[in-house]
């Protein structure tokens, strides 16, 4: 079963930065929409960022816009999430997944509407990010 592997999480102070990485050995990410999601304890999973590797377009949830940046390195089959100016409310388990047939429109939908998470596949185990002083 194809699955993503996330890394780069940890404990950071408010205002700090982390860079998460997401990869899979199951297929090339070059042409897919790859999303980053997070779930805090007791809360629903939310889509926070997405990149459509077919055209390079990106999308962000309002909660992270201006602080987080998604990017991809197709040669290394990696997708990154650079997280700056971290807040305690960013504490969550972070996941990546792909919409294998989606693109720019899928990315826009998934950061706006949780129901579109059903379009995404190959969910990883997630990585914990804790923002605390």
Structural class from helices and strands? Answer: mainly beta
| Order of helix and strand elements from N to C terminus | EEEEEEEEEHE
CA radius of gyration is 13 Å
* Approximate helicity band: under 10%
Largest beta-sheet details = 6 strands, mixed
Mean pLDDT over the full residue set: 94
Regions with pLDDT < 50 over 5+ consecutive residues?
A: none
Tell me the strand order in the biggest sheet. 2-10-9-4-5-6
Number of strands: 10
The N- and C-terminal alpha carbons lie at a distance of: 39 Å
Question: Beta fraction of the residues?
Answer: 35-45%
Number of helix segments? 1
| Morphology call | globular
Report on this structure:
The chain has about 130 residues and is mostly beta strands. It is about 5% helix and about 40% strand. It is built from one helix and ten strands, in the order E-E-E-E-E-E-E-E-E-H-E. The protein has one helix at about 105-110, and strands spanning about 5, 10, 20-25, 35-40, 45-50, 55-60, 70-75, 80-85, 90-100, 125-130. The strands form two sheets. The chain has a six-stranded mixed beta sheet with strand order 2-10-9-4-5-6, covered by helices on one side. Strands 1-3-8-7 form a four-stranded antiparallel beta sheet, with no helix packed on it. It is globular. The termini are far apart. The mean pLDDT is about 95.
């Amino acid at each position: 079963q194809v699955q993503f592997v996330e890394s780069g999480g940890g404990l950071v102070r408010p205002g700090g930065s982390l860079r998460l990485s997401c990869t899979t050995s199951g297929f090339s990410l070059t042409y897919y929409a790859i999303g980053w999601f997070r779930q805090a304890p007791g809360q629903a999973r939310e889509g926070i960022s997405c990149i459509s590797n077919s055209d390079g377009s990106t999308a962000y949830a309002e909660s992270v816009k201006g602080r987080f940046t998604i990017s991809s390195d197709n040669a290394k089959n990696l997708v990154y999430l650079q997280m700056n100016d971290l807040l305690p409310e960013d504490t969550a388990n972070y996941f990546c997944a792909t919409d294998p047939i989606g693109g720019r429109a899928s990315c826009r939908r998934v950061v706006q509407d949780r129901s579109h998470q059903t379009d995404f596949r190959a969910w990883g185990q997630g990585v914990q990010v804790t923002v605390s002083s």
